[in-house]
Specification:
667 residues, alpha/beta, DNA polymerase, domain 1, 6-stranded mixed sheet, 26 helices, binds adenosine-5'-triphosphate, nucleotide-binding, ATP-dependent DNA damage sensor activity, P-loop_NTPase, hydrolase
Length: 667
């Protein structure tokens, strides 16, 4: 799909979209999160682009939502759905649901919705869902302790391009390679020519390294999984708990993820931790061991009476021997025992059994007091421990990276499927909370056949779903809807618009039953506040002229108290004229009006008047039957009150007033 073929996508947006991973797929699947990853495209705009792309795919042009009030109702429906999702991505995806005129689109959403409603969602799924997000790109890693080395210019260029995370060095010969090995923990030589050289340090000759990025920069894979670790774990939980078909072995991925932190660093493992402890505790352990050995020796000396016979002393003196010789001769055993105690202290404390011979080499041969171990041997041992730790770390990093690498392809499907559960669950929750059913949508050619609502509960009323009275209403052709004040006329228009929009979005409706054709446009005009000035009045008339000219066959027209735009006499004539024009075009239209009688008198054709009636007064409050009664002009609130007073008293005044009402209604 060429992005510029999508309405609303110009060259600038198309260029921005080219920046994302697989823009074709993102547009085809309406993947808002992926589209929003393009530079300077906000999630709201991404949702609009995704929606336009879907519309283009279904060959739809134009918007079913033909007026501001229709758009507002759609937005309110989206709010109801979005408030039941827990992820941003889920909420954004819900915004791509729009009322469509394409059967293919409506059916594909319905299929998904039916599956979503049938599924069971564990009660406490929100916390798992909330931790899922679309694949996050990891920050570029920079690896400083490793480098690549080559003497070949082409290989150098290829390596720099493939591995921006790591330094690539040029080396002419073994000596330069050896120099590098001093500065880096690990050097990976790319040229076969360096094979077989004996160079100190961790130098590996890997002519195939360019094709093995996991070996060269395992940190790259790890950073990706680190950035998505918590989301993936949550997605795994969602898959398990909802019973989704997983795109990979979830246990294996879970176990591999357990080995990394969120920054992509690998958890060390027992061997590295042991080396780490040995390096950190090295100086202290050596000091303590020397002290132990010295204390041992001191105790041995203090406990001893050294007896030297006079002849011996003379012979020693003749040979020029010092006290140390005496010490060695007399206390050799005690010294050996003391040194051995020191050795054990180091080996045990640092857990260095495998390197015990190295510790042995640091022990003094000659008796000294206090006892000191050989510093240079210890320095070598410390360096060796560090090198061993670094080597082991790299091995482990590679091991874990190799374990995770095969799951790279599963990241998007796993996260996307879990996010889809958020969308599905939001729809299912809406359906359950409003006790929805799937509407019956009539096939092509049924435009103008009217809309049938049984037990419809307007979800936009502020009342809790249980507090909304169900409404039955079947509308076909042009109707005038009369009714008592606050009887629910506006709410009935909202209900008609809501179920029509929901049905064409492919969603379930809050009603026991709804039958509707696919309407080409929903033209809902909300109530005007107060009389319009001449200019505004003129533009409203023009709007209706356009509506009458452009509204396709079978459009839905809902108008709330148009009479308030001008004085009653004139507005009754205007509404009558509009109704006549609409009746010619097979529209389904409902005009809410307090002037139904006057309008009917002005029309040259028969227009049905329906009424929302009050069935009585309860403690001064009207008791209303919310379902419009077909073909009945509802009595007004003042009429009801006059009737009540006439019933309750025997004053002629109220009878006179009542007589006026009855005369006007022709009864
Ligand atoms: N089906 C219903 N179930 C419960 N309450 C309703 C229902 N319909 C309307 N109401 C209540 O009545 C109030 C008034 O409804 P609405 O504005 O639709 O009446 P109206 O007939 O258009 O009023 P007006 O005469 O002022 O134009 C609503 O805010 C709501 O509280």
């Amino acid at each position: 799909m060429d992005p510029e073929s999508i309405p609303g996508v110009g060259p600038k947006t198309a260029a921005a979209l080219a920046d994302i991973d697989d823009p074709e797929r993102a547009l085809r699947e309406g993947d808002v999160a992926a589209i929003a990853a393009a530079p300077e495209i906000t999630p709201a705009r991404a949702a609009r682009i995704a929606r336009s792309a879907i519309q283009a795919r279904h060959d739809e042009s134009g918007d079913v939502l033909a007026t501001d009030r229709a758009t507002e109702i759609h937005r309110s429906i989206l709010d109801l759905l979005q408030s039941r999702a827990v992820t941003d991505a889920g909420r954004q995806h819900l915004r791509t649901l729009y009322p469509s005129t394409a059967r293919s689109r409506i059916d594909s959403v319905r299929e998904r919705v039916e599956r979503a409603i049938d599924r069971e969602y564990p009660d406490d799924l929100s916390s798992d869902l909330a931790a899922v997000h679309p694949r996050a790109e990891a920050a570029t890693v920079r690896v400083r302790e490793r480098c690549l080395a080559t003497g070949d210019a082409e290989r150098y260029a290829a390596a720099t391009e493939r591995f921006p995370e790591i330094s690539v060095e040029t080396v002419a010969d073994a000596r330069e390679l050896a120099d590098l090995a001093e500065g880096y923990a690990t050097v990976i030589a790319l040229d076969r020519a360096f094979g077989g050289l004996d160079i100190e340090g961790d130098v590996r000759v890997r002519p195939d390294a360019l094709d093995d990025p996991v070996a060269v920069v395992p940190e790259r894979v790890l950073a990706t999984f680190g950035a998505n670790r918590d989301a993936l774990r949550a997605a795994i939980a969602v898959h398990r708990r909802v019973g989704l078909d997983p795109p990979c072995d979830l246990d294996a991925l879970d176990a591999a993820l357990d080995q990394i932190d969120a920054d992509g660093s690998v958890r060390p493992g027992a061997e590295i931790e042991r080396l780490e402890r040995a390096i950190e505790g090295f100086d202290d352990a050596v000091g303590a061991a020397e002290q132990t050995a010295t204390d041992h020796l001191r105790a041995a000396i203090e406990d001893r009476d050294v007896t030297i016979e006079g002849a011996d002393l003379l012979s020693l003196a003749e040979r020029g021997a010092g006290v140390d010789t005496v010490l060695e001769r007399e206390l050799g055993d005690a010294f050996d025992a003391a040194v051995s105690a020191g050795r054990s202290a180091i080996v045990d404390r640092l857990d260095l059994e495998s390197r015990a011979d190295r510790v042995d080499r640091a022990l003094p041969d000659e008796p000294t007091y206090p006892i000191a171990f050989e510093e240079s041997v210890l320095a070598d041992l410390r360096a060796e421990l560090r090198a061993a730790r670094d080597r082991r770390r790299l091995e482990r990093t590679r091991e874990v990276a190799r374990e995770l690498a095969p799951f790279r392809e599963a990241i998007d499907p796993l996260l996307d499927a879990a996010l889809a559960v958020d969308v599905d669950r939001a729809i299912a929750r809406f359906a359950a909370e409003y006790d929805c059913t799937m509407p019956e949508i009539e096939g092509a050619g049924t435009e103008g056949s009217g809309i049938d609502i049984v037990g419809g509960r307007n979800p936009l009323l502020p009342e809790a779903p249980g507090g909304v009275d169900p409404v039955d209403y079947t509308v076909a052709g042009v109707r005038l809807l009369s009714g008592v004040n606050s009887g629910g006329k506006t709410s009935t228009l909202d209900l008609i618009a809501t179920v029509t929009i929901l049905a064409q979005m492919g969603l379930p409706v809050p009603a026991d039953r709804v039958r509707t054709p696919i309407v080409p446009s929903i033209n809902y005009y909300g109530k005007h506040r107060g009389t319009l000035d001449a200019g505004a009045f003129e533009s409203t008339l023009r709007e209706f002229e356009t509506l009458i000219d452009d509204a396709g066959q079978g459009a839905l027209v809902l108008v709330d108290e148009l009479e308030s735009i001008t004085e009653p006499g004139a507005s009754a004539r205007i509404v009558a004229g509009i109704c006549e024009a609409l009746a010619d075009r097979e529209t389904t239209a409902v005009f809410v009006s307090h002037l139904a009688r006057e309008i009917r008198e002005e029309t040259t054709i028969e227009i049905q008047v329906d009424g929302i009636q009050a069935v009585g007064l309860d403690d001064g409050d009207l008791v209303v039957e919310r379902s419009p009664v077909e073909g009945v002009l509802a009595r007004s609130t003042p009429e009801l009150i006059v009737e009540k007073l006439a019933d309750e008293t025997d004053r002629a005044f109220y009878d006179r007033l009542l007589g006026k009402f009855e005369a006007a209604s022709g009864d």
